[in-house]
Amino acid sequence: MEDIILYERQGNIGKITLNKPEQRNTIDIHVLKKLIGYFKQSAENGDVCVIYAANGKHFTVGADLKYGYDLLTNKERLAEAIEFLESWQILTRAMLAHPGIIIVGYHGWVIGGGFEHTLICDLKIAATDTRIMLPEVGVGLFFSNASTKLLPRIVGETRAKQIMLLGNEISAEEALNIGLINQVCKPEGLNRILKKTANMIVSRGHLALQYTKKFINENQDLSIESVLARESIAMITTGQSEELKKRLEKFVKKE
């Protein structure tokens, strides 16, 4: 049986891939557990950058609805239903805790929780055929993966309410225009752009990358004085690192 999730490493770059192309990469509890495990493993391996991608025509159409319906209507599977719902949140915690930079590459449909769990990714690149939609309210469900905080932070409250309340389809071009993604490329160039971006990331100061991700994620909820104090510590710490000394030495000798 083929693995539903793939994880591989090349140098400082890890790659996690959804691998259920025939099922449009639907997500059930087994997929969530695999993703949680691989993101934790990637962090333990010290991956400086992680490419999060998907095989097949679509990134993911989100939760497996037949599976979800059975969980919610079968009282004997109540414990599994609760575990399934909570696993979405655990996945976001695992991705947030990863010290490396996570780059997601969208293509085809990216629906519901299949999109919401990627909001925590640090960089988002989409092929031109990408279509994003959050249909939860339309069927009476609710959102996951801290999306009610992350989406307004990314696109603003007004736009987030429109996306979540109306559930309209969002094209790659519109997603770029509203700041929901960082870059659009041709479908055939997506893998190349993801690799190029990952290589660019790992060429930078690794400790500085960690601080940048951590502070942007955390500092929005702190006072300016607290942020200034945290930045001072980070400046001193990176300034004393051997990595910085080696990089500055190369720069000075080059000059």
What layout of secondary structure does this protein have?
Blueprint: E1 5-10, E2 13-18, H1 29-45, E3 49-54, H2 65-73, H3 78-97, E4 101-106, E5 109-111, H4 113-116, E6 123-127, E7 131-133, H5 136-139, H6 147-155, H7 157-166, E8 170-171, H8 172-177, E9 183-185, H9 190-202, H10 206-218, H11 224-239, H12 242-254
Overview of the molecule:
The chain folds into 2 domains: 198 residues, 2-enoyl-CoA Hydratase, Chain A, domain 1 (Alpha-Beta Complex); 49 residues, no CATH class. The longest helix has 20 residues. Helix 1 links the parallel strand 2 and strand 3. The strands form 2 sheets. The chain has a 6-stranded mixed beta sheet with strand order 1-2-3-4-6-9, with helices on both faces. It has a 3-stranded mixed beta sheet with strand order 5-7-8. The protein is 53% helix and 16% strand. It has 255 residues and is an alpha/beta fold.
Strand order of the largest sheet: 1-2-3-4-6-9
The radius of gyration is 19 Å
Order of helices and strands: EEHEHHEEHEEHHHEHEHHHH
Compute the number of structural domains. 2
**Gross geometry:** globular
State the CATH superfamily name of the largest domain: 2-enoyl-CoA Hydratase, Chain A, domain 1
Task: Kindly provide the name of the CATH class of the largest domain.
Answer: Alpha Beta
Briefly characterize the structure.
The protein is 53% helix and 16% strand. It contains 12 helices and 9 strands.
Distinctive features:
53% helix; alpha/beta; 2-enoyl-CoA Hydratase, Chain A, domain 1; globular; three-stranded mixed sheet; 255 residues; single chain; six-stranded mixed sheet
